[in-house]
Design brief:
Rossmann fold; seven-stranded mixed β-sheet; alpha/beta; 4 domains; 26 helices; five-stranded parallel β-sheet; binds thiamine diphosphate
């Protein structure tokens, strides 16, 4: 049937049994594709019927459908003309893992980060009014995303604006892990209310069977139901915010979804429709372990195996060291914004449950909460992905740095991230973190250095960020050391003569490899591990500027404002003018592909770095001979 669905218009022609069959086919395609390509399987499986019903009732793309995060939108992609290309999901040049305006007219807003859909929807509602248009605007938001403060800023604003818009709360009681917080408990309470709704439905069905008078009684019951509903719901949270609340309804019952959506679609007021779904629906393993099946890495083999692999990485290593540090130091506490699994912190949470906090998808709150903790004498560690830490920029400056509080930020997924693509790249952190006075910014070349940085963090009397990728290359015995690190101290790993590469973090192995390749061209290239992006090792930089005719900076971070800029700023302050080549992520968004390919697109693999150095050296030679 999928082959006949070229656009949502084709869905509207289907009968209920056909819609149910379509859901099964869509689900099968998602399972088949994602277990091969990787991606957000459990969230997408939970939203299949909901998305079919939405497309059945609404008229997308005239009506606007905005997905929060967008990781649950695979069925939407499949049903909006992208089924044939779906096999390439998240691969280079293939369908993106998130809604993308550049990819399809059916994706009216680009997604990836959580809790922004209601704001975007309200923007569209206001645009609709100003432009005198008429169409529906729908935001589909998960209960996990509803732990993010932006949702409430938007609801507060939308409620008083009182223009029609529909917020669908897709409640599966899960964020990536079990959802947290008082509001999550409140939603669960509402779901339990469904018993009340279900009882009424059963009574109504029974009454309809009574000859002649039955239907009249039913109408009377409908009236009473409305009265009871209003009485019960009048003091509810969403109603107070200015939204009419409907639900909860079963998010896998297409008939019910269609009926309800038809009812609320033409409402003259803001409506919140609460839909109960099951994460991972239809895929046994994912239903049983929705957290582990939230996102899968590409694997043509067995998804279960990769889940074992999923938790191993720098985050897990850090959690192991940190829990030992916390055994000895009762001031250490760890927090995460809905990412205990991804950041590897579950082991810490198990060992020190009273000193571990999952705050929900609330990075801004988390940073300031850590500041509060530090101000009250604790040593908080924040475990966060680089791209999500962007949410806490002001809080870092205002709440952490100005008071110089000892908050350590474990910046995971620093650098290029692969299949998640442009919304998740961790390539801005070195730039924005190094702007902040007092912040120590460190990035380890391998796991051994990561451990040394973590140890150092315990002795720093101010904020420190340790930035690392999910996995680091093992550089082997030769580069291993247990010696305590000193803030701002770099290390010269290879001495050369013609050029030196100052490399940061995961670029150190690349620099070492590039130096080997350059040696084959009879270029003697030194390598310095610039493990502190702030403060710089000014003494070694000055020394290198005196010894080497060419200084190359190498980072998996935006060139704009990154480590290369820091080195140039320093050199220009001294009035020294050596030949400098800065290599890093260019000034454009890097789309989904493997990390290797993304590196190549940025000119950052070892062969390309070697070529760039050769190019610059020969250009220099030509200039001199002119
Ligand atoms: C700002 C931000 N922080 C963290 C994440 C990582 N993340 C992606 S999905 C998700 C959970 C979302 O839960 P929910 O909205 O309930 O959707 P579900 O997966 O349950 O369908 C999280 C924490 C993110 N995308 N954006």
């Amino acid at each position: 049937m999928l082959e006949t669905i070229l656009s949502p218009k084709d869905i509207k022609k289907l009968t209920l049994p056909e819609l149910i069959a379509l859901a099964e086919e869509t689900r099968a395609l998602i399972i088949e594709t994602v277990t091969r390509q990787g991606g957000h399987i459990a969230s997408s499986l939970g939203a299949v019927e909901l998305i079919i019903a939405i497309h059945y009732v609404l008229d997308v793309p005239i009506d606007k459908l905005i997905f929060d995060v967008g990781h649950q939108a695979y069925a939407h992609k499949i049903l909006t003309g992208r089924a044939a290309g779906f096999h390439d999901l998240r691969a280079e040049g293939g369908v993106s893992g998130f809604p993308k305006m550049a990819e399809s007219e059916y994706d009216c807003f680009t997604g990836g980060h959580a809790s922004n859909a209601i704001s975007a929807a309200l923007g569209m509602v206001r645009a609709r009014k100003m432009r005198g248009e008429k169409h529906a605007v729908v935001a589909l938001v998960g209960d996990g995303a509803m732990t993010g403060g932006m949702c409430y800023e938007a609801l507060n604003d939308a409620g008083q604006y009182a223009e029609p818009m529909l917020v669908i709360l897709n409640d599966n009681e899960m964020s990536i892990s079990k959802n947290v917080g008082a509001l999550s408990a409140y939603f669960t309470g509402l779901r339990k209310n469904a018993v009340y709704t279900g009882t009424k439905r059963a009574v109504k069905r029974g009454l309809n069977f009574i000859p002649l008078v039955g239907p009249f009684i039913v109408r009377g019951v409908d009236f009473i139901k409305r009265v009871i509903r209003n009485a019960l719901l009048r003091d509810q949270f969403f109603e107070k915010l200015g939204f009419d609340y409907y639900g909860p309804i079963d998010g896998h019952d297409i008939r019910r979804l269609i009926r309800t959506l038809k009812k609320v679609k033409d409402s003259e007021r803001p409506v919140l429709l609460h839909v109960a779904t099951q994460k991972g629906r239809g895929y046994q393993d994912a239903e049983a372990h929705p957290d582990q099946y939230h996102g899968l890495a590409p694997n043509p083999l067995d998804p279960r195996e990769q889940n074992v692999r999923r938790t191993a990485g720098n985050g897990e290593l850090i959690a192991g060291w940190l829990l030992e540090m916390a055994d000895r130091n009762p001031s250490i506490a760890v927090m995460t914004a809905a990412m205990p699994l991804g950041t590897g912190m579950t082991a810490f949470a198990r060992r020190h449950p009273r000193r571990f906090f999952d705050v929900g998808i609330a990075e801004e709150h988390m940073v300031t909460m850590a500041a509060g903790m530090a101000a009250a004498g604790m040593r908080p560690y924040i475990a966060v992905y680089s791209s999500f830490l962007q949410r806490g920029y002001d809080q870092l400056i205002h709440d952490v740095c100005i008071a110089n509080l000892p908050v350590t930020i474990l910046v995971d997924r620093g650098g290029l991230v692969g299949a998640d693509g442009s919304t998740h790249q961790g390539v801005y952190d070195l730039s924005y973190l190094r702007q902040m006075p007092g912040m120590v910014v460190a990035s380890p070349r391998d796991a051994n250095d990561l451990k040394r940085m973590l140890r150092l963090s315990a002795h720093i009397e101010g904020p420190m960020a340790i930035r690392y990728p999910r996995d680091s290359e093992d550089l082997g015995e030769r580069f291993r050391s247990e010696e305590p690190l000193k803030v701002g101290q770099w290390e010269e790993l290879a001495v050369g003569r013609d050029a030196v590469i100052l490399a940061v973090g995961q670029m150190v192995p690349v620099a070492l490899q590039a130096a080997v390749e350059l040696a084959a061209h009879r270029v003697e290239c030194g390598v310095i591990d610039a493990r502190f992006v702030k403060p710089l090792d000014e003494a070694l930089l000055k020394d290198a500027a005196g010894r080497y005719p060419l200084i190359v900076t190498l980072e998996e971070n935006a060139l704009a404002g990154g480590f290369g800029s820091a080195a140039l700023e320093c050199l220009s302050a001294w009035g020294a003018a050596p030949n400098v080549l800065t290599l890093g992520v260019p000034d454009r968004f890097i789309e989904h592909a493997t990390i290797e390919r993304q590196r190549e697109c940025c000119g950052l693999n070892a062969a390309q770095v070697a070529q760039a150095v050769l190019g610059r050296l020969s250009a220099e030679q030509e200039r001199k001979s002119d």
